[in-house]
């Protein structure tokens, strides 16, 4: 992992059951808390990278373009998912 990446997760196969619970145990979330606790640091890292790319170009410029492209694709997918959910819930159509 480079200094431009952030990873919050685990490869423990029991983790999803702890995080989200099951029919027999309540959720015991820990990953969401780690993400929330790291949010400010992640935002500062991203801001420094964006600022560097905008001011100095170089390798960060291409990474910034890729981040923006991925963000646009994620936005489109979220919008499509939301629109489908709204359409599925609207029985008047």
Structure in words:
This protein is mostly helical and 93 residues long. The protein has one domain (15-89). It has 3 helices and no strands. The chain is flat, with a radius of gyration of 19 Å. The termini are far apart. 0% of the residues are buried. The model has no long low-confidence stretch (mean pLDDT 77).
The gist of it:
The chain is mostly helical and 93 residues long. The protein has three helices and no strands.
Feature tags:
single chain; 93 residues; mainly alpha; 3 helices
Number of helical segments?
Answer: 3
The N- and C-terminal alpha carbons lie at a distance of 48 Å
Task: Provide the residue-averaged pLDDT.
Answer: 77
How many discrete structural domains?
1
Helix content: 55-70%
Structural class: mainly alpha
Strand content: under 5%
- Tally the beta strands: 0
* Dominant shape: flat
Q: Main sheet, how many strands, which sense, barrel?
A: none
Q: What's the SSE pattern?
A: HHH
Give start-end ranges of low-pLDDT stretches: none
> What is the C-alpha radius of gyration, as a whole number of Å?
19 Å
How do the strands and helices of this protein lay out in sequence?
Layout: H1 15-20, H2 31-56, H3 59-89
Helix pairs in contact: 2-3
